[in-house]
Amino acid sequence: MSRVGKYPVELPQGVSVTIEGDVLSAKGKLGELQFTLSPDLVDTTVEDGKVVVTPKATHKQARMMWGTTRARINNLVKGVSVGFSKTLDIVGVGYRASLQGTNLLISLGMSHDIMYPVPAGITVKVPSPTQIEISGADKQVVGQVAAEIRSFRKPEPYKGKGVKYSTETILRKEGKKK
């Protein structure tokens, strides 16, 4: 069983964390993020450059929220100081992407091009027509945007055509035999 909750979250230089009621706010060079705490299950305090999370009880729900709360706070702190990013690769003849203002135009071999509006707080770069870089402070939103773009044309197992994460490996199937 993981005991990630017992480790305090270190606050890097330039990041401030405040707790007002049930809301924890982290502010850094990349913006400000908020997280709603579970005050009946865990206690959260800021002590000399560290955020400490402790469970209020020993029952299962409190122990689960202990680790979850610590991980979410760590993601907030990392997000406002360094940020998160995902890279997507587009594989296939004629498949490409480009930026048009705040919209991402993706051509994936369908009868129409896909116009994807980029949400606020997310930065999308297209260094080459077959690569998309998504970055932002909120880990959940960055992952959600990457998953939505990937869902337009998931990679298929025979030729590997589609939109895939750059770290993803496609299990290839053997084609028909004569």
From TrEMBL:
Query: Per the similarity annotation, which family is this?
Result: Belongs to the universal ribosomal protein uL6 family.
InterPro entries in the record, alphabetically? Ribosomal_uL6-like, Ribosomal_uL6-like_a/b-dom_sf, Ribosomal_uL6_a/b-dom, Ribosomal_uL6_bac-type, Ribosomal_uL6_CS
Question: Where are its TM segments located?
Answer: none
Q: What does the entry give for GO biological process?
A: cytoplasmic translation
Job description of the protein: This protein binds to the 23S rRNA, and is important in its secondary structure. It is located near the subunit interface in the base of the L7/L12 stalk, and near the tRNA binding site of the peptidyltransferase center.
How is the subunit organization of this protein annotated in UniProt? Part of the 50S ribosomal subunit.
Name of the protein described by the UniProt record: Large ribosomal subunit protein uL6
| Cellular component, GO annotation | cytosolic large ribosomal subunit
